Every structure is written in structure tokens, then in C-alpha cells.
From TrEMBL:
The keyword DNA-binding applies. The keyword Ligase does not apply. Residues 94-176 form the Transcription regulator PadR C-terminal domain. This is DNA-binding PadR family transcriptional regulator. InterPro entries: Tscrpt_reg_PadR_C, Tscrpt_reg_PadR_N, WH-like_DNA-bd_sf, WH_DNA-bd_sf. Keywords: DNA-binding. Coiled coil: none annotated. GO terms for molecular function: DNA binding. It comes from the Bacteria. Residues 11-82 form the Transcription regulator PadR N-terminal domain.
Amino acid sequence: MPRSGQTDMAVLGALSIEPMSGYALRESIRDVLGHFWSESFGQIYPALAGLERDGFVRREGAAKRGASTFAITAAGRRRLRELLTEPVQAAPARNGLLLRLFFGRALGTEACRALIAGARADAERRLREFDALDARTAAEPQYADDAPFWHLTISAGRHHAHAVIAWADESLAALDHLDPDGR
């Protein structure tokens, strides 16, 4: 099965910031890129093995508990640049909340209201996380060259969260005009 170019892009991109173990790479992707990207251990380790085989990353000794640290090579930086300039691959939309709301008549108005209120609360939580992420980014001078670009993704996350809050408020108001059976 061929590796995903987007997985390779995420791995090479993270390693372009600093060398790290596979575990640290997964944690970094989860903690730093997590508001817009995810990769599982099942995707990262095969990608690292393939990228190493292709000469795009190299092992740098052993980190804690015998785990290898990986670093991007010059060829890996060129490959990352190639991947970054490829057209963006649109992912098919899969939104479990909207799927449930689409069939809201069967679910019932109050259950729909609860789902929307939950989405609103989650968006408010994400706004707080973006504030904390922004503060952490600003407090790390070693990443000053990357920070303006990182702020672009944080800004996108904030805008999305604000949009969800506005949509939730509008949707809750629309549900006020329906009876509990959805009519």
C-alpha cells in the first residue's frame, strides 16, 4: 500500500522544525497540528520507515528508552518542498453532527438542541485552546521564524470556532420555532 503524500508532508514538516523520536513526532502532531491535522502511530511509523529508506530522514542515535530520533535530510527538505507545492487534496466531508441534524425529525427537536449546544460549547473550548496555543507560540523565541505561519493556522481555527458559535446560535433560535416533534 503506498504511503500517503500528506502523511509524509506532516512527518517531514514536523521534522523540519526539530529532530524527534516517532513518539515525540506523534505527540507533536497531536498537540501542535491537532486543531487541523491528525496522524496515528499506524501512519507515522510506516511513513518514517519509508522516508528513511528513501533517504529523506535519518536516525540519530537513541533517545529515551532506546527509541531512535529522526532528523530530516537535505533530500527530505527538497521532498517536503515538492509535497508542499502539490495541489491541496480535498477531503470528503464527514460530519457526524450534520448527519444527525439532517435526520433531526427522527431524532427529535430536543436531542438536536442538545447536539447543537454541545457543538457550541466545544467551539468555545477550542477558542480557549487557541488562545493558549497562541500564547505558547509567542513565548517560544526559538520558533520565531515559524510563528507567523503558525498564527495563520491558529487564526483559521479561531475563525472556524466563531463560525460554529454563530451557526449554533442561529440554529438554536430556529429550533425555538419547532415543536418537540420537529414540526
